[in-house]
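2024-03-11 09:14:02 INFO worker-7 job=invfold-0412 stage=load source=structure_tokens
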């Protein structure tokens, strides 16, 4: 079938990828009309890989001249998804960067597979920051998220669908692999990040991100503790405890839905050894020879 119910919306198979019927019209509009600029930065991620975190970090870095880190910082009052919308949700040039005159062009975001990106993103100087995560943790996070959105399928049913590639923007392996290959071919165009690496070495990756985006962290900023300030502001503990993220809503999704545990390896609490084996087997097959491990 080309259409599968996944709990809160239908997924529709489009050019080999399962896209939400809520996102598809916006994505097609972007493909037809969106003109990327050389100064744009596009965040792309697999759903549930830490997009919310990366949005917070990118927003803070890109806008630090306009919004210094203090008690008036927008992240204390708005969810990262409101500050950096998904282009397929909010296609319209004015809405892509609401109320922001960002010195670095428009940082915007997407879960779009590489093959379906608007041509101008690939042809212009627009940079892509890509984030992915261990596939088993991605699945577990996706399962919880979907339950919160009202999905009724059991963990086992969801798992079967996921392994068949039926998940938001799935098959997740194909999504990751295409950006991985692009990042090897064009490292100046695509920065490939892993959630686990961000967790392990946050300062290193924040500096890498800033450099890639064209707004490197200066020695003066480092001396003044800027790196720790950004990481503290964007940390799971800080963001998940803010009133806006406990109560507000982004589109139709409650903000608290984007924050669960923020741990690496939580899959061990949910998957049986058979499930572990099955997903590892698919991952090994799909990534064979690519040099990529997750
Ligand atoms: P878990 O469900 O494993 O806790 P996305 O933002 O792509 O929807 O991904 C959501 C996952 O990122 C969730 O993982 C969520 O808890 C975690 N997350 C959200 N904000 C985070 C942050 N500031 N730091 C680390 N992880 C975060």
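2024-03-11 09:14:09 INFO worker-7 stage=emit residues=294
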């Amino acid at each position: 079938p080309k259409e599968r119910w996944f709990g809160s919306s239908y997924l529709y198979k489009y050019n080999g990828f399962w896209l939400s019927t809520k996102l598809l019209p916006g994505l097609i509009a972007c493909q037809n009309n969106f003109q990327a600029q050389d100064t744009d930065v596009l965040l792309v991620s697999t759903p549930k890989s830490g997009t919310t975190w990366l949005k917070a970090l990118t927003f803070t870095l890109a806008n630090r001249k306009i919004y210094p880190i203090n008690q008036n910082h927008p992240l204390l009052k708005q969810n990262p998804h409101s500050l950096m919308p998904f282009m397929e949700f909010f296609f319209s040039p004015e809405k892509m960067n609401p109320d922001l005159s960002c010195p670095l062009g428009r940082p915007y975001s997407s879960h779009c597979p590489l093959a379906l990106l608007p041509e101008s993103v690939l042809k212009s100087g627009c940079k892509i920051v890509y984030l992915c995560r261990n596939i088993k943790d991605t699945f577990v996070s996706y399962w919880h998220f979907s339950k919160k959105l009202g999905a009724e399928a059991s963990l086992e049913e969801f798992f079967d669908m996921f392994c068949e590639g039926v998940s938001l923007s799935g098959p997740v392996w194909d999504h990751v692999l295409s950006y991985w290959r692009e990042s090897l071919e064009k490292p100046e165009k695509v920065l490939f990040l892993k959630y686990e690496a961000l967790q392990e070495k946050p300062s290193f990756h924040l500096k890498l991100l800033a450099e890639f985006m064209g707004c490197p962290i200066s020695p003066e900023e480092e001396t003044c503790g800027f790196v720790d300030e950004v990481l503290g502001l964007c940390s799971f503990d800080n963001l998940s405890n803010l009133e806006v993220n406990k109560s507000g809503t982004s589109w139709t999704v409650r903000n608290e839905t984007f924050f669960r545990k923020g741990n690496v390896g939580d899959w061990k609490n949910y998957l049986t050894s058979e499930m572990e084996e099955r997903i590892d087997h698919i991952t090994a097959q799909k990534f064979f020879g690519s040099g990529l491990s997750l």
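2024-03-11 09:14:09 INFO worker-7 stage=report msg="Residues 45, 47-53, 137, 141, 144, 234-236, 239, 258-262, 266 surround adenosine-3'-5'-diphosphate (CB under 6 Å)."
2024-03-11 09:14:10 INFO worker-7 job finished
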